[in-house]
Amino acid sequence: MAVAVLAVLVEVNEFVPIDDPGTGQLKIEAQCSAKVIVGCDETAAMQVRPLALEVACIMHQQDLGLEVSPAKIMHIEPDRLGPDIDAYETWQVNWTHEMVIGESVYDDVTVTPEKVYVGYSPEVGLPHEPAYIKSQDATNF
Fold first, then answer.
1. Rounded to an integer, what distance in angstroms lies between the CA atom of residue 27 and that of residue 33?
2. What percent of the chain has pLDDT over 90?
3. I need a labelling partner for 127 at 20 to 30 A (CA). Which of 5, 72, 95, 138 fits?
4. How would residue 95 be classed by pLDDT, with cut points 50, 70 and 90?
């Protein structure tokens, strides 16, 4: 039996800033969705569910050939588009990708820092370097 799919609408809903990578770049989470819209006959409600699951399977762990994290499926649920198209059955698949935007301040650095020194404001800068404390571990300030 053929399934009449009116459309699969894919969109990026929003970009949400997340963890700061400490490189001068912006790390964001792209929140994406695909709306699976099926025709308006008596079997549409049963047809739309497996199609939404198929979209989720296709998107699962996909990076789409881009420099983004693999897709993480968040929700697969009914979607109500509005009164103008109530006759159609619609389900929505939501997923996220993480990505880093911009240039790293370390892109042109050829030497990786090996020693970390800590100074406390306002005693910072060249005149106060002798008072800096050497940190044993760059993550242990």
1. 20
2. 45
3. 138
4. very high
- The pTM of this model reads 0.71
Q: How many domains does the chain have?
A: 2
pLDDT value at residue 110: 72
CA angle 75, 87, 38 (to 5 degrees): 50
Residue 41 has pLDDT above 70, yes or no: yes
> What's the domain range around 15?
5-101
The verdict on 141 and 88 lying in the same domain is: no
Three-class SS of residue 96?
strand
- The closest of 101, 121, 134 to 25, measured between CA atoms, is 101
For the residues 92-108, what does the mean pLDDT come to? Answer: 92
Task: Give CA–CA dist 66/83, Å, rounded.
Answer: 36
86 occurs within a structural domain: yes
Residue 106 lies in a domain: no
In this structure, which amino acid lies at residue 140? N
Which tokens is 13 given? 């809903």
- Alpha-carbon distance 44 to 71, whole Å? 27
Could you tell me how far CA 114 lies from the centroid of its own chain? 32
Whether 120 is in a domain gets the answer: yes
In whole angstroms, give the CA distance from residue 25 to residue 1.
51
